[in-house]
Every structure is written in C-alpha cells, then in structure tokens.
Amino acid sequence: MKKVIAGLLVVLSTVTIFSYAQESNITNYANQLLGGSTDLFGYKDGNNVEVKTISKNGITFQSPILKNEANDTITNYEVLYGPHTVEEILNNDSSLFGTLQTKKVVYTGTDTTLSFTLDTTEHALDTESIYYTYIVPKDISDMPGVVSKEFCFNLKYQIYGLGDECITKVEEAKKTEKELVHNAAGADMELANVSHTVDGKTITLTWTAIDGSNTLEFFLLNEDATNDDDVKWEKLGTADMMDQKYVFQYDGAHSTNVLIKPDNGGQEKVYDLNFTPSVEKQEPVAKPTPEPKKPAITVVPKTGAKENMLVIFIIAILGFVLYKAMRKSN
C-alpha cells in the first residue's frame, strides 16, 4: 500500500503540472510506479505515524522526524486527506483526485516528533463522514518519499483505524447508539403520536402518554441564533406527560420547529408545526348609506278672484279705521 501511495504522490505532482485532463498520462504514471522504489526515504522499517488524539473537534497525528540516506533531516511534510481511499482513486475515475485536500507542515524545531492536526472548523470537516488520510515526507527537491500508513477516521464517533476499517467501526457505533436510545429509561417521544391543531395564534400540541417520563419540556427554535452565546432553543414551558396536551401562543417571531424533551433521560423529538402563520386582517367597517334628503314641502297660498276681493276688503277696512282715528285726533 505504501508503494501505491508513493506512486499516487508522483501522479499528483504530474497532474498539478500538466492538468487533470491528461487522464491517459495519469494512468500510465500510476502503473509505472506501482512497483515503487526500495531506496526512498520516508516511513519504512517500522518508523510510522500514530494517532495522538481524536475528538469531535478534530484529529491529531504524531510522526517521528525522518532523515534521508545522507542523514539530513526531512523538514517538509504534507497531509493528504479526503473521502476516498488511495485504491478507490487509482482504480476509478481520475476525477477523484480533485477530492483530495492538502495541508503542508514545515518542521523547524528540535523535537524528535512532529504533530499534524486536522481541525473540524479550519479544514471544513463533516463530523458525519469517514475520511482517509496519510502523511507524505518530501525532500528539498519536493520529491515524495515513502508515505505513512493510510488512516481512516470519523469524528462523530471518534473512531480511527487503518485502511477502510472505519466503515465497519462506524456501522457498529451506529447500531450501538440505536440500542442505547431504545433501551433508555425515559420516554421515546418518537412513539408518542405527537400532533397539533392551529386556531389563529393558538397552538395545541397533543400526544399519547407513554411510560418512562413524567414531565415534558417544550422549546421553540430560534433561527436568529448565529453563535454559541445565542440561545438556540427558547423554552416555552412544561407539562405533565399525563396531560396529553400543551397549549401556547405562537408569536410569529420563531421557527415552527418545537423541541419536546422528556425527563428521566428520554428521547427528545423535534416536531415541525408545518404551517404558515397567518397575519390577522381587520375587516373595514362598512359605513351606513345615508338616506336621501326629502325636499321641504312649502305651502303655496291659494290665489284667485275670491282671495283677491278679500284682500281688497281688508285693506279698505284698515284704511277706514285709520281715517276715523285721524279725524278724531284733529
């Protein structure tokens, strides 16, 4: 395997110079170098890399400081890592070369060992995935020596091994995880038949009471949480398992994902309310239609011959009375 990887490294150098498009050349170089070279410096004679630490935040390898045939210290190293084994890359589509990532490390100290760390954040590692990696020593001419053993690792389960051992190890870890969840003392809310109803802003969660837990806590997802200091799940409240119902008011400022967390180490459940909050609209109040105004009715005095004579008579009487009054005063 070391010889295969050594061949791969020369192939990678050639690809860097002449481009990935020269697939026939890549195949030829790989085939020519499968036999490797017995006089290369590097990781041989039991001199190899070991895993120092592994966690969900990354993995650290430790290597002895290598020397070449002239007893000169090898100061340049490269860590190659990716989602495929060396054999997969050589035996399949050459485009898999593009999945390899490289980290360069230069030795400048006096220690007898050198550490290489692949960090989850810095190197954008997916904790769920299995990665394959090996260390490449290089001389002052940038020619690769015998590479280290090929390691595999998975950060979620903090597993590592040689070659493709991690495939089996991760499957076993997943199986164990499921058994632990199934055998947990607390209630498994996946089995509680959770459902809900919506009435305006009022949400009613319902479930079937199951054994294992007495109390349930409810949280709403805060989608605005952007760092570790933010509260990702904001607590709504609690309810007894036997209540089989929890009512709350949805404010529209959160995600519609609700976390239901049982006590006593039970299996929590993220439940999606799966609805779009409606915005309340006020219906306009209809103004009453004003009734049309009735025109005022004016009494028109009657006119005619009789009416005219009556007016003349009244005027004559008034004139006579006025005349008598004036005579009497004289």
Task: Describe it.
The chain is α+β, with helices and mostly antiparallel strands. It has two domains: 2-172, Immunoglobulin-like; 189-272, Immunoglobulin-like, CATH 2.60.40.10. The protein is 23% helix and 27% strand. The chain has helices at residues 2-18, 23-33, 86-91, 165-182, 305-329, and strands at 50-55, 58-64, 76-82, 101-106, 113-119, 131-138, 151-154, 159-162, 195-199, 202-206, 215-221, 233-240, 245-249, 257-262, 269-272. The strands form four sheets. It has a five-stranded antiparallel sheet with strand order 4-3-6-7-8, with helices on one face. Strand 9 (195-199) and strand 10 form a beta hairpin. Helix 1 packs antiparallel against helix 2. Mean pLDDT is 79; it is low at 11-37.
Oligomer: single chain
For the residues shown, what is the average pLDDT?
79
Q: Count every beta strand, where a strand is a DSSP E run of 2 or more residues.
A: 15
- Helix count from the secondary structure assignment: 5
3D shape: elongated
> Any idea of the CATH class of the largest domain?
Mainly Beta
Terminal Cα span: 160 Å
Based on the coordinates given, report the CATH architecture of the largest domain: Sandwich
Which ranges are low-confidence, i.e. pLDDT below 50, for 5 or more consecutive residues? 11-37
Q: Which tags fit this structure?
A:
single chain, 330 residues, alpha+beta, Immunoglobulin-like, 5-stranded antiparallel β-sheet, 4-stranded antiparallel β-sheet, 5 helices, 15 strands, 23% helix, elongated
Secondary structure elements and pairings:
Elements: H1 2-18, H2 23-33, E1 50-55, E2 58-64, E3 76-82, H3 86-91, E4 101-106, E5 113-119, E6 131-138, E7 151-154, E8 159-162, H4 165-182, E9 195-199, E10 202-206, E11 215-221, E12 233-240, E13 245-249, E14 257-262, E15 269-272, H5 305-329
Antiparallel strand pairs: 1-2, 2-5, 3-4, 3-6, 6-7, 7-8, 9-10, 10-13, 11-12, 11-14, 14-15
Helix pairs in contact: 1-2
